[in-house]
Recover the amino acids of this structure.
């Protein structure tokens, strides 16, 4: 069972003192998370003023710093459209990457998804398919990438009309009905992070945790940082009985 550490996301520096933004801070955090039990990391590189960016130099600096300190640790980057606001601009920036991550997450609710997946795969970058709704799941199962992804991300945000665990289950049912085979990773954000993660654990799915998803531990106390969150999830995984 994979535990992926999501180190920073779109969070502002004032949201947590331990939020890693610079390449060096990301590398140190990735190393601590690896030691705590993470098998991969997901990052949002930052550029001028600490803003999220897809610029090749900033992405390369973050990847290389982590790779130097944590050789062999798979690194994933966001491709969130909100970072540049235009799918053509996003495509151009990612086309110019020369230092490549092992994988990228692609939100199937965003325009330009098929072109982006084709680009990533052509560069040898694996794709994580991000599904946040039943509509996303239906798009995905009809797409040419349903069997070409590294894994499927079932991503649940708080504030929806339905219970977050039931929303995740509805996405899974669509994937099951379509016979989709790639591994699944399920995670929630904010208030639903821990309930959705516990449900993922019960289902045997891969897991994601980090300051991008939540600032608090299972008991609602404030996490010291990403490694604290990863260690908490690693303990939960250790309590799952081994299959007989």
């Amino acid at each position: 069972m994979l535990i992926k550490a999501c180190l920073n996301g779109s969070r502002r520096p004032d949201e947590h003192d331990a939020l890693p933004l610079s390449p060096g801070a990301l590398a140190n955090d990735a190393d601590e998370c690896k030691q705590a039990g993470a098998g991969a990391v997901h990052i949002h590189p930052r550029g001028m003023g600490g803003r999220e960016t897809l610029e090749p130099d900033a992405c390369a600096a973050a990847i290389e710093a982590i790779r130097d300190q944590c050789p062999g640790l798979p690194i994933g980057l966001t491709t969130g459209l909100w970072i540049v606001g235009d799918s053509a601009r996003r495509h151009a920036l990612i086309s110019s990457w020369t230092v490549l991550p092992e994988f990228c997450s692609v939100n199937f609710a965003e325009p330009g998804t098929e072109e982006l997946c084709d680009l990533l795969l052509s560069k040898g970058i694996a794709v994580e398919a991000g599904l946040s709704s039943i509509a996303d799941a239906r798009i995905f199962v009809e797409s040419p990438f349903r069997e070409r992804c590294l894994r499927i991300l079932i991503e649940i945000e708080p504030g929806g009309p339905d219970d977050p665990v039931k929303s995740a289950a509805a996405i899974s049912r669509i994937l099951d009905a379509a016979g989709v085979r790639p591994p699944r990773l399920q995670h929630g954000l904010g208030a639903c992070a821990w309930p959705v993660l516990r449900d993922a654990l019960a289902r045997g799915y891969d897991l994601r945790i980090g300051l991008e998803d939540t600032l608090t531990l299972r008991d609602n106390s404030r996490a010291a940082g990403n490694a604290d969150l990863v260690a908490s999830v690693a303990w939960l995984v250790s309590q799952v009985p081994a299959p007989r």
